[in-house]
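Reopening this one. Same input as before:
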Amino acid sequence: MNLFVFGLGFTARRFVERARDRFAQVRATVTDPARSGTSELADLRAFGPESDDSRIAADLADTDVLLVSAPPGRDGDTVLARYRDAIAGSRIGWIGYLSTIGVYGDHEGAWIDEDTAPKPVSARSRGRLAVENDWLALGAETGKAVQVFRLSGIYGPGRNPIVKLREGKSQRIIKPGQVFNRIHVDDIATTLLASVAHPRNGATYNVTDDEPTPPQVVTEYAAKLAGLPLPPEVDFETADLSPMARSFYGENKRVRNRLIREELGVTLAYPTYREGLAALVADARD
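Same output, byte for byte:
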């Protein structure tokens, strides 16, 4: 069984690390193979805005499991635009598309699940939802098992609140009532592996933790664990945030993960930020 990954970024790398011994061949795309530093994980291919490695079409014909982690382009999904026919005509049996809980939009802090109708607010999330639908349409037309994974805020080794505190890039932003869900990258990998073992064409899964939490509470816990000073509190209205970061605070929801547990049998290793951050500190991998 062979694996192909479009977009060998933070999340996909962890999936490959966990799944490498399950596949005879692993091939993956990066923007610049010469600078990626991940050649030990996969045979690398270039995949960029304007040009691709000429081997990709042949690779897809020789693929069984396809993970799509590359973000959409301005005009939709670049993978589908260039390789839809190659994928449709291949022997690929499982396709996973990594999306975001941002497609649900704002629910004023209410609980939601996979039955909640998406109502994306930003153009970025509207584009994600359109791409989700395009991939699901491919599954409906071809019978290939296409699954969409809506991820919450991803953290793990090298990418978490402790790192931000140490780098002096953390802010303790206060917006009353605001909560966010999170997910440890290892729990994403576990969920993907469970889906590969139990494919369901047309499935959509929320991949998230059990405890949506105000961001400043997580920052405070991280600082206490790592013995680091807390940054001062900053009111959201006056906080120095990029337009993208500020847009995240315009959406407030509590996301349930029941389906990955009941359908895929996933038990989260890090059901809340507390277990995840504590493990990072204990393993000295923060």
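So the earlier flakiness isn't reproducible anymore. For the record, Residues 2-152+182-209+255-269 form a domain with the Rossmann fold fold (CATH 3.40.50.720).
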